[in-house]
Amino acid sequence: MKKFKYEFMVMEGFQEKKKIHDGDQWLFKYDNGYGASIVQHSGSYGNDKGLYEIAVLDSHGELCYDTPITDDVIGYADEIKLYETLNRIKTL
The sheet that has 14-20: what strands, in order across it? Predict the structure, then answer.
């Protein structure tokens, strides 16, 4: 799973990786104005299983709860779910 964490940094839209709480955050921004935050830390949904939490971000980088993708964060996301969700955000 560690290898995948570094693949985030070469994906389309990748902006930066940050330390957050006791884990990591990867931020993405797309031409349509939306972005994504992927986190994995002790408080994120799925961390205990080695999984990720993903959130849709608006054009100001704030959490966005009113897209067809979700009205909350998406927890317990594996690599496939992350790729699918990032692609959906990119095409909103």
Answer: 14-20, 23-29, 35-40, 52-57, 74-77
CA-based nearest residue to 23, from 1, 67, 15:
1
Contact 51, 82 (CB under 8 A): no
Asked if residues 61 and 18 have their Cβ atoms less than 8 Å apart, the reply is no
Return the bridge partners of 27, or none. 16, 37
Please tell me what DSSP assigns to residue 8.
G
Q: pLDDT for 40-64, tens place per residue?
A: 999 999 999 999 999 999 999 999 9
**51: helix, strand or coil:** coil
pTM, entire model: 0.90
**What are the start-end ranges of the H helices in the chain?**
2-7, 79-90
3-state secondary structure of 19: strand
